[in-house]
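#struct-queue
[09:14] JT: dropping the first one here, sequence first, then the structure tokens:
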Amino acid sequence: MSLKRLTVAVIVSVCAFAAFATAQKNEVSGIVGRTFISDQVITTSTFSDNKLHFGSGLTFEGNYARRVLDGALLSLSLEVPFVFSPDEDLHLHTNPVSADYRSFFVTPAARLNAFSASAVSPWVSVGGGFGYFRGSTAIPTNTRSTTTGVFQVGGGLDVRLIRKFSLRVEARDFWSGVPGLGVTTDQSRQHNLFVAAGVVWHF
């Protein structure tokens, strides 16, 4: 099965599961943090420092989830995290302001919470979807836009605040293809590590 068909199958499955779920416990969250990406070696570079460096871009997440299974110890929710990084900087030591790009990730996922009825609830999340990269005008036009399949795995902690609101801290790794940057690097995929905190509204 191709990556595109697998992505479509994941999205359809999550939507169908949510539509027939009997639980009516929903949540919406707003999260703000940073995305960290490891350096990549430019294979065609002749400079001694041939690494492409990524900045730690300010990143935003909006997330809708519905709880579909609820137990005394564990609960299962289906979630759709949407993650947007508006300005991911790129540079070399020889050219500190070379280019930048923005990225979007949408990865429907299953999230397993422990002690979900208590004040403190740790969780893990696994899912997959797609990502989109759009480079600045400093990147050649023919490589400026890239769409890629994405695998997401993450974990975090929800701490109940008042009534229907919780504080969330989380880390998610979006394993994606590489953006089209106009250079050839030693990587065909990259880890986009998102570390953040925000507020969850339960309803």
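[09:21] JT: and here's the second one, same format:
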Amino acid sequence: MTQTGRVAGKVALVTGAGQVDGPGTGTGRATARLLAGHGARVVIADIDPERIEVTRKEIASSGGTATAVVGDVTNVADAERFTRAALDTYGRLDILVNNVGVSVPGSVVSTPESTWDQMLDVNLKSVYLCSRAAIPAMAASGGGSIVNISSIGALRAIGFAAYSAAKGGMISLTQEMAAAHGHQGIRVNVVVPGSIQTPRAGHAADKLGEDIEEVKRRAAAVIPLGRVTTGTGWDIGYAALFFASDESQWITGQVLSADGGSGVTLPAVALAGALKEPPA
């Protein structure tokens, strides 16, 4: 593995880096592979040992360096253990990607309290716990970069009230951490995925009783870039790679939407335009 990549010499921790069953590549898996491919030594964390082993083997087979750690991001001891694995194995920690996410559809009326608590624990409390453990280690090495993976649900309604509330909270927490720890050389930014094709996209469609192919068709009709390309986990991985690298050394507390342009137009307007024939 050449050490001339965009994050060469750095040590990264990526949570939720396992591969969920289904077509496509998840954001955590893609991010971990890109960081390793660009020279970072990577600690990959996931609650499922089989899923995380898939990612570790892929990184190793490509000539990268990765250490797999099994644990629960909502457990304080496990969150601390992830950072300790980076320090014990590689001597430092420069990058943290908080990628874990789980979603359940429902309004505030239909969502049980137990589900609400679970959504906030997995999607938001995990960022607090993993960041709290990682920040002192980063500061000891002169700084670092934290990249939080949010959701388009943080910016507009998608039918997942508790999940969206947690992902919206992630954006506010990102800005708080950026302000509090910038003097330590720690940058904190957030990536907001829009409609992307990952294994979890199919699972989300199933939860809503939707056919994933119909979801893709509707998305292509209203997303400005939808008729020429499809968003994937790799698009989120490249955004995370940018924030993790020194290329973004003067950027912190920012929100980057990787959504194919869906945030720049009203769906009804986009759909009306999509139904017209493009100019010859």
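[09:30] RK: nice, looked through the second one.
[09:31] RK: The first helix runs from residue 27 to 37.
[09:31] JT: good to know. DSSP finds nine helices and seven strands in the chain.
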